[in-house]
Task: structure prediction
Amino acid sequence: MSVVTRFPPSPTGYLHVGSARTALFNWLYARHFNGKFILRIEDTDQARSSQDAVDVILAGMEWLGLDYDEGPYFQTQRFERYAEVVEQLIREGKAYHCYCSKERLENLRAEQMGNKQKPRYDGHCRDRVVAAPAGVSPVVRFRTPLDGAISVDDKVHGTITTRNQELDDLVIARSDGSPTYQLTVVVDDVDMGITHVIRGDDHINNTPRQLHILEALGAPRPIYAHVPMINGTDGKKLSKRHGAVSVLEFRDEGFLPDALLNYLARLGWAHGDQEIFSREELTEAFGLDALNKSAATFDTDKLLWLNQQYIQHAPASQLVGFAAPYFSSANIDLDDGPAIGAAVEAQRTRAKTLVELADQSRMFYGETILDLDAAKKYLRPVVGPALMAIRDKFAMVEDWSGGSLQEIVEQIAAEYDFKMGKVAQPLRVAITGSAASPSIDVTLELVGKMRTLTRLDAALSFISEREVS
Ligand code: GLU
Result:
């Protein structure tokens, strides 16, 4: 039997990390077995679904590189099929029309709550003997067995048994004829030949209901694996309070898709102590047996660490491709400075995100604004003459390359009886505007001759203004 998995998001919001992880697990499982991964948009709740949310889901999947073999299917395009199944179930006596008014159901609920009972439908229309009331559009309820129990062998949680008494006759079609989630999910899983349902354990309670419907349809059961939720480091369910939770926000904050993917894979799944996995390694190693039972913790610091590892080790050309959009959103004019590849190379070991990488590269391009604190600290009159001497030597350099520039700095430092750092740091502040940059040779080379001279002049006037004041 070949493996078929699915990712069935409801397009009611952004693609958050929990859903993305579910998508990833399903994708990995299908890829591991050379099976099929299906994308299905569960948009039957038309009031809460939107095209924007669909677009965001598709964009998130694409950014993460989670390609699908079939879909996206849209449940709203399958209403005929669901209606057919509802009819079939009614015909076979496995579902029935329910004419109970909203009022009756509300009273029932209030009464049950008052008696400290779990609210559930009481089966009033289940064995209706009197004629249906005229002018009422009924809902359709599934006839859940009254006695006995149903068990599922969940790959994460083991055997889960539910007494049928605890389940009521759920609505499978609303009074306007539209199908409910519990029905559509089962019909689709059957029609699409889903063999493995890997989803969040917030769906665990739905499983026994869905199993009954599956049985009523005489369809084979898929294998279920309910993965635990993701919490923030405070132990609470991950939410907006914890910062970025939408996948595309991570993109905007400068995370590499592979780093986020790697991080998501490790939320609730482990393979020994290994932390860093290529996509191929993940595909190779992934299995349901190593899924954790307890909730995973989303730790932004760990994700940042992983992102930094990916930035450091990504192939140069790939990293440039990823970094380029961040340079343009930072309004860095790439025509007014070194080739982007050189800037990326110089900063890749110093940045945790691509936003930081672009921001830290700004010093190589266009104008630079002096950081006043750094200027006050480092651009002191005492280094003025040495900086001036460096400026004059630099002005004569024809072959502007890091090594020889560094030699000039060393030589002038010696001449003025300064330790190298005492000159290099003010020089760094002068030409980059800040006290942090790559090594001085690399920095000088990338800032380029013209820019270095202009910036040194500005620093020298800062120093001389200081002298007079
Ligand atoms: N559409 C459901 C959701 O977004 C998923 C249902 C399922 O995985 O069975 O939570």
